[in-house]
Design goal:
Blueprint: E1 13-18, E2 22-27, E3 33-36, E4 38-39, E5 42-43, E6 45-46, E7 49-50, H1 53-65, E8 76-81, H2 87-99, E9 104-109, H3 110-117, E10 128-133, E11 138-144, E12 147-154, H4 158-162, H5 179-198, H6 202-211, E13 213-216, H7 225-233, E14 237-239, H8 246-260
Parallel strand pairs: 1-8, 8-9, 10-13, 13-14
Antiparallel strand pairs: 1-2, 2-3, 4-5, 6-7, 10-11, 11-12
Helix pairs in contact: 1-2, 3-8
Length: 265
């Protein structure tokens, strides 16, 4: 039986998490590749979205070149973007990846990839809430039956919190340190979560209370943050096993399904 896309099974498939501080790539069973999202003083990404496509393309080019089959056949790429990314911001991400040497690009919401990468059953008929706190954006999503039902995001994250944290030796208590210096960022994040929860129907809200909130992203590693969010919301917060890698690992897991459906060619 002939396929409409004869090179589909020959191309390498690459999952990308283009983050504010770090770009992560995953292909097949290979170990993750990580690279800073800037070149010298040139920042390629801010607030979770591409601001300089040329810089991002330059960073990605050697990564994608290493996945070319026989050194010739370009890879297809599944990338992730914040749920509130505008069409223009998604286009810049798409353009940067194509300039870097991809044959095609598909973009999915970061919270969906984060949920899959954290190992939760996104196909469940019961609502599950994900809060992904990245370097420059915090993304909330409600997932049910493999679909994102609703989302909300704010362009602040652990990058702004890190400026108020003490040196590493003082981070061992498991408590959120120097809360006063972190308060503006914490208020933005808790305000986002409060508004998100208030907009849910009573039935959906009960499902979230029962299932808890899944916390992913680099912000999940800040000592005491999960406990603080739990105390503030009154809902149990579960931290993903490897929160920094949840998005890219989720995209890697989703890739075979996307390819099978011929959505990425």
């Amino acid at each position: 039986m002939k396929t409409r896309f004869p090179l589909l099974n020959w191309r390498q498939q690459v999952a990308l998490d283009v983050g504010t501080s770090t770009i992560r790539a995953a292909s097949g069973l290979r170990p993750l590749i990580e690279h800073c999202s800037c070149l010298g003083s040139k920042a390629g990404v801010r607030g979770g979205v591409v601001v300089d496509p040329a810089t991002v393309a330059e960073i990605l080019r050697p990564i994608l070149d290493s996945t070319r089959l026989f050194g010739i056949v370009k890879p297809c790429v599944l990338a992730c973007a914040p749920s509130d990314a505008t069409q223009e911001e998604r286009q810049r991400l798409h353009d940067a990846i194509m300039q870097a040497g991809a044959s095609s690009v598909m973009i999915i919401p970061e919270p969906l990839a984060a949920a899959v990468g954290a190992g939760i059953d996104v196909s469940s008929p019961y609502a599950q809430m994900v809060v992904d706190i990245g370097e420059g954006v915090t993304d909330c999503a409600l997932i049910k039956m493999s679909r994102i039902q609703t989302t909300a995001a704010v362009r602040v994250g652990c990058g702004q919190m890190r400026t108020g944290l003490p040196p590493v030796p003082f981070r061992q208590s498991g408590r959120l340190p120097d809360r006063h210096s972190l308060q503006p960022v914490l208020e933005s994040i808790t305000g986002l979560i409060d508004d998100f929860l208030q907009d849910l129907s009573p039935e959906t809200g009960c499902e979230v209370i029962e299932n808890g909130i899944l916390l992913t992203g680099g912000g999940a590693l800040i000592p005491g943050l999960s406990r603080y969010l739990e105390q503030h919301s009154g809902i149990h917060v579960v931290t993903a096993p490897k929160p920094r890698d949840s998005v890219v690992e989720g995209a890697r897991a989703i890739l075979p399904v996307v390819v099978m459906l011929n959505l990425l060619t």
